[in-house]
Amino acid sequence: MSAKPIPRLLLTNDDGGRAEGLKVLEQIAHELSDDVWVVAPEFDQSGTSHSINVHTPLRVYSSDERHHYVRGTPSDCVLFALGHLLKDQPPSLILSGVNRGANLSEAIAYSGTVGAAMTGMLFGVPSIALSLAFRQPECVRWETVLRIAPALVLELYQRGWPQDVCLNLNFPDLPADAIRGVSFTVPARGVISGVKIDSRIDTRDQPYHWIGFEYSAKHIDDPRTDIACLREGKISVTPLRFERDLSGEWDRLWEGLDHCLRN
Fold this sequence. Notes:
Blueprint: E1 9-12, H1 20-32, E2 36-41, E3 60-64, E4 67-70, H2 74-85, E5 93-100, H3 112-122, E6 127-132, H4 142-159, E7 165-171, E8 182-184, E9 192-201, E10 207-215, H5 226-231, E11 235-241, H6 251-254
Parallel strand pairs: 1-2, 1-5, 2-4, 5-6, 6-7, 8-11
Antiparallel strand pairs: 3-4, 7-11, 9-10
Helix pairs in contact: 1-4, 2-3
């Protein structure tokens, strides 16, 4: 059992087992627990959302008892840990990240970092995704997360939150001393403005394609959103549920659908 405040921590990510953000996350975790387990993808799995492998077996490579690297997705890693490695003593908290780049608004739907946290939540384990925004790839401010995240994660853990919710944390691209606060936020809509396909030809004259998105957030001005929060130099904490919001008027859609059974 851990003498530190969190009994057992499970760490994963979507940037892969060699990612700098995972090393940062492990430093954070060791400030909070004496019982830290790393189960992360062997390779980069960005954009895999909640996906799992059902057509190929999971290959797992272990460097020691508490460091395991899975040839699979972030959700595969969480399921392998909960269903096998830590089956008899589940983690008290799952931390996913620290992602190199923000996971905001509509991009949340595709994020493997968030997908891992969502998977943990679905199996009843409190889970937090952590991501760090950056403007220049050669200047990612890992020290900001290292300084702030341990106290913030512990405070959130001790306060608790509903079992059907995971938390998505995003840190702005600022030095720790310049962070202006922490805000609870909601995802913005309309940030993805289009699909970008980069088509190329390989060495055998066969076509292949890279897929990506075009983003535009200048029009997002709702102060409740994660976009506005980072713009103001604050850390965004977005509660996420698996259930999607279905509030609204649906009578026009479902009224009279029974007549389809008579055709």
